[in-house]
Write a structure and sequence with these properties.
The chain has 447 residues and is mostly helical. It has 3 domains: 18-117, Orthogonal Bundle (Fumarase C, Chain B, domain 1), CATH 1.10.275; 122-374, Fumarase/aspartase (Central domain) (Fumarase C, Chain A, domain 2, Up-down Bundle); 380-437, Fumarase/aspartase (C-terminal domain) (Ribonucleotide Reductase Protein R1, domain 1). Helices cover 59% and strands 5% of the residues. It has helices at 17-20, 24-27, 29-49, 63-71, 75-88, 91-105, 121-158, 178-193, 213-218, 224-235, 251-279, 304-326, 337-342, 346-365, 370-378, 385-394, 400-408, 416-425, 430-437, and strands at 163-168, 171-177, 202-203, 239-240, 283-285, 366-368. The chain has a two-stranded antiparallel ribbon. A two-stranded parallel sheet has the order 3-4. Strands 5-6 form a two-stranded antiparallel sheet.
Length: 447
């Protein structure tokens, strides 16, 4: 069958294409070819700017036309690269041959042998891939994560004064406020997001086994280490790893995946908590006309957005975890196992994008059920026992915890009246009794 959204094997390119489509500019086969082409062209320009003696007369006025080869690169040109690859059976060599073709068409044929001069394919892959990842995260992932963060901030502010029964171990616990519980997730996202600025996008650039052997053999008088450092950092905007084998270490890439994983774990926690709050009826979900929650039970409005998010976050993290563990391991100076794995970088990012979109959709659907929240507080007066025994400690009361233990740990319902009766029975001043009677499940929420 012809490939389209219905025939795609991966849901990233099928069912969820409307959510992940922007990623194809960074993680598709087309994108990889385009980024490789960009590195090859920028490298050739950098050689001209040394200049190598043989490139001295390649006019700088040609640089704009040269850069247009990757800036205006389209599917038709990518198909030509793939046609060449069917002969070469080598994807990077196909890019080199394609570029040489374009050189001859432009009248630059006599300089074409300085395309890919002294390089190995990993000098191109290990710069093109971190470049595409850097751009993809900046253009798609970070704006989406920030949108989620800002939605949470808005909800935290909107719900900041709503008291709510907390649950530890699933059991009624010291009351909190709904807005504060949302702020917990904001703080966690913010804390982990700081690390993105500390993890460099690393690149390997050093020839066949990392030593720039061919460069030195051809032009021993040139400071090739300085050239490589400058090219990677100043032209490409990456950080050059040195020394290396034939390939990048991938340690920083693994750290980046681990950081993405940690944020996904936080978002999983959020999705599960929202699911549970809906189950507790603390939230209702907006009903959409025509939407069906169950094929058999017409009354159901299921928390499908939070379930979808959790499932996609889990899948993304399984792939992130594998990549973080696999990529830094390569036999001796290199084996090829990293190549096929790197082609899947867009997969966990795609599932993460789907998950965040589902979270946004789910959060946009929830409506606070104040009646249920207030009812749960009123039905759990036992939770003020912590406050009462703590004030009694302040007053020097003998064994206050044990006194509250005898009152509350009986499997009998504790009501406002039973709490007041208990307070009236205490051997404390009327002022302290009055203070204790002011405490309710709705106002005992701390700071």
């Amino acid at each position: 069958m012809e490939l389209n959204n219905l025939t795609a094997i991966s849901p990233i390119d099928g069912r969820y294409r409307h959510k992940t489509g922007k990623l194809d500019g960074y993680f598709s086969e087309f994108a990889l070819i385009k980024y490789r082409l960009m590195v090859e062209i920028e490298y050739f320009i950098a050689l001209c700017e040394i200049p190598l003696p043989q490139l001295f007369d390649f006019g700088k006025e040609n640089f704009t036309s040269l850069r247009a080869l990757y800036e205006d690169f389209d599917i038709k040109e990518a198909e030509r690269v793939k046609e060449l690859e069917r002969t070469t059976n080598h994807d990077v060599k196909a890019v080199e041959y394609y570029l040489k073709e374009r050189f001859f068409k432009s009248g630059w044929g006599r300089w074409s042998e300085f395309i890919h001069f002294g390089l190995t394919s990993q000098d191109i892959n290990n710069t093109a891939i971190p470049l595409s990842l850097k751009d993809g995260l900046a253009e798609v992932y970070f704006p989406l994560l920030f949108e989620l963060r800002e939605m949470l901030a808005g909800l935290a502010e909107e719900w900041k004064d709503i008291p709510m029964l907390a649950r530890t171990h699933g059991q009624p616990a010291t009351p909190t406020r709904l807005g504060k519980e949302i702020r917990v997730f904001i703080a966690r996202i913010d804390e982990q997001s700081k690390y993105f600025g500390q993890i460099p996008y690393s690149a390997k650039f050093g020839g066949a086994t990392g030593n720039m052997n061919a460069h030195k053999a051809a032009y021993p008088e040139i400071d090739w280490t300085g050239f490589a450092n400058g090219f990677v950092s100043e032209v490409l905007g990456l950080q050059r790893s040195y020394p290396t084998t034939q390939i990048e270490h991938y340690d920083n890439l693994a750290a980046l995946f681990d950081n993405l994983r940690r944020i996904n774990v936080i978002l999983t926690d959020l999705a599960r908590d929202m699911w549970l709050y809906i189950s507790l009826e603390y939230f209702r979900q907006k009903i959409r006309k025509g939407e069906i929650g169950s094929s058999a039970m017409p009354h159901k409005v299921n928390p499908i957005d939070f379930e979808n998010s959790e499932g996609n976050l889990g899948y993304a993290n399984a792939v992130f975890g594998y990549m973080a563990e696999k990529l830094p391991v390569s036999r001796l100076q290199r084996d090829l196992t990293d190549s096929t794995v790197l082609r899947n970088i867009g997969v966990p990012i795609g599932h993460t994008v789907i998950a965040i979109n589902s979270l946004l959709r789910g959060l946009n659907r929830v409506v606070v059920n104040r009646e249920k929240i207030e009812s749960d507080l009123e039905n759990n007066w036992a939770v003020v026992g912590e406050a009462i025994q703590t004030i009694l400690r302040r007053e020097g009361f003998h064994k206050p915890y044990e006194a509250l233990l005898d009152l509350t740990r009986t499997n009998q319902k504790i009501t406002r009246e039973s709490i007041i009766d208990f307070i009236d029975s205490l051997d404390v001043s009327d002022y302290v009794k009055s203070e204790l009677k002011e405490i309710t499940p709705s106002n005992y929420t701390g700071f």
